[in-house]
Amino acid sequence: MSRPLLYLSYQQDTALLNTPGKRFWTSVLGIVAVSLPFLLTDDLLVVLATACVASIGAIGLNLVTGYAGQVSLGHAFFLAIGAYTAAALSGDPDSTRLIGFGITSVPIWLLAAGLVAGLAGLIVAPLAARLRGLYLAVVTLGLVFIGEHVFKHWRDLTGGVGVGRPAAVPELFGIQFAVDGSLFTKAQKLYLLMLVLLVIFGVLARNLVRSRIGRALAAVRDRDLAAEVIGVDVTRYKMIAFAVSSFYAGVAGALLYVMIGFVEPGSFNLGMSVQYIAMVLIGGVATISGSVLGALFITLLPRVTRELPAVLPFISSSSAAGGITVFQVETILYGLLIIAFLIFEPRGLFGIWIRLRTYWKSWPFSH
Amino acid sequence: MNEFVATVVRGLGNGSIYALLALGFVIVYKSMRVISFAQPAFMMAGALLTGYLVLSMNFFVAVLVALLLTGLLGAVVERLALRPMIGKPVFVIAIITLGVDIVIRTVVNSFIGLDIRQMGDPWGLRQVDVLGAKIDQRHLATLVTTLIVVAALFAFYRWSRTGLAMRAASSDQEVALAQGVSVGRVFSLSWALAAALAGLAGVFLSTGIGLEQNLWLTALKALPVIILGGLDSLGGAVVAGLTIGVIEALVGSYGDNLHPVFGGDFFLVVPYLLMLLVVLVRPYGLFGTREVERI
């Protein structure tokens, strides 16, 4: 048996699962994740499937904002592009109201959604090459508003405000994911599909960031001038960061509304961008597993606060009854969590995990 | 011609609101090098407070008291949520202000409710004839008040001792500290000023049409304004605010004649499109200071 923390090569050190502990716990996590559909009720599974999709989106944002340090408030714009590409590709070709091509195979519309969004990211990237810091944040915020306007008015594609259109139809090798089957329910199938996709895109991202590209992105983030001096082509890597991040956003956008089966153009607003920023910050900046944790946290938060009225009688579940409503508690909690995490644990949930890990690793000694 | 004059005055009126909001952003930026996304919340808070106070007192007194309270709120927020973060990356601080915005706005919204709340202002939707054009009184009132406030603000920065301290802290914090300027107080004061200016903008925004929950989106139009004017330029904020207001109004009135795409509510995205165009040519806005980096 080899010694666990002795690395003889750089490859060993940067390997995905470089310690026995990681290997063990990742297998446990995998087994738990796969067995969840048989343990949980369908409504919880739908929430978890949404969390998986949100994780893909959060990973995308983390690539550009966490790893490359380019603050983007325009994530909702790219999510929207992905959502509508996928919805249009898999839409009903006979519909007179909406654009549709009838291609329902998951890999095709998923890749197309990612590529179209990625292309949009490439078009936006020159802005990032010219702008720094908060200027960039505000300009990408402008994208969200312009996109919202276009999507609200392009009725053939989006169905218009308040009407919307059916979301992408998931179908693979003849299996319809969005319909209850004889073996699995709709929620179980969707959860498993999203879980598999999250694992694929998560591992891809993890591999990207531990490669040459990932190190170049980190160099650009830490000091772009210094990066340029050591030979990193800053403009090129900013473009790569935006393209890949938008690709992930497109994929997440395509999948995000599959669970509900319906897309409304008004939903891709500033609030959605902020939500993804919150996932990245609460999860942990520049970590892939942190993005997943943050997405889980933010997606499960409404679900948890909905249980509050049973515990705390002064919170009412409808606005008619007076007092504080669940929705208000949820929003306030969401805002306070963002503030509290940034002040007290800037490394997010991932940071808490690291602290716990170090504590138990050296237990019972404090150092 | 009459319609043109009316459009321009409407644009100047709305533009003054953007200018007031943008000034708040710039004041905070100058002191902390951070964009405060909490401005919409302060705007709503100022308008809401006025709406409540006006029930028991004169409108002008109500506005003054409301602005004082909003300023106080700004200072308290700065002390609680922002002060612990000094020295952290600006992006992190900016996101904290987003959190502050969400919290304050939810509380304010729960007080506004679903109805439209009237401000009890003396103008309402009455119009006056100027050169034959029908002009809303509220737009004129907004423009005049903004000009007075801007003049006072510039005088304050130029000639008062505190204004000098604020300029010093903005140009170099450490040197200012060494000269005996209390940078902490400058931060508090900046936030209070910014919050009060946003509150004033909120009051004028909701005169006539009333206060409702979705009004906060207007405050975000100050973001293209500050990018256009340059993040650290007070004068730029005023000029860009008025310009964007007028262009927006012109597109709103005449966009339809050019092409149906520019009609309807297209004018709502005009500020953002302008911003994109300008930053492609001038990354630091029209009047912003170019960042010079030493290697």
UniProtKB/TrEMBL annotation, chain A:
It comes from the Bacteria. It is found in: Cell membrane. Its main location: membrane. It is a multi-pass membrane protein. One of its GO terms (cellular component) is plasma membrane. Pfam families: BPD_transp_2 (PF02653). GO terms for molecular function: branched-chain amino acid transmembrane transporter activity. Keywords: Cell membrane, Membrane, Transmembrane, Transmembrane helix. The chain crosses the membrane at residues 24-40, 46-64, 71-88, 108-127, 134-151, 190-209, 240-263, 275-301, 308-327, 333-354. PANTHER family: ABC TRANSPORTER PERMEASE PROTEIN (PTHR30482:SF5), HIGH-AFFINITY BRANCHED-CHAIN AMINO ACID TRANSPORT SYSTEM PERMEASE (PTHR30482). This is Branched-chain amino acid ABC transporter permease. It comes from Kribbella sindirgiensis.
Automatic annotation (TrEMBL), chain B:
It is found in: Cell membrane. This is Branched-chain amino acid ABC transporter permease. Belongs to the binding-protein-dependent transport system permease family. LivHM subfamily. It comes from the Bacteria. GO terms for cellular component: plasma membrane. One of its GO terms (biological process) is amino acid transport. It is a multi-pass membrane protein. The chain crosses the membrane at residues 12-29, 41-69, 89-108, 140-159, 189-211, 223-246, 266-287. Keywords: Amino-acid transport, Cell membrane, Membrane, Transmembrane, Transmembrane helix, Transport. One of its GO terms (molecular function) is transmembrane transporter activity.
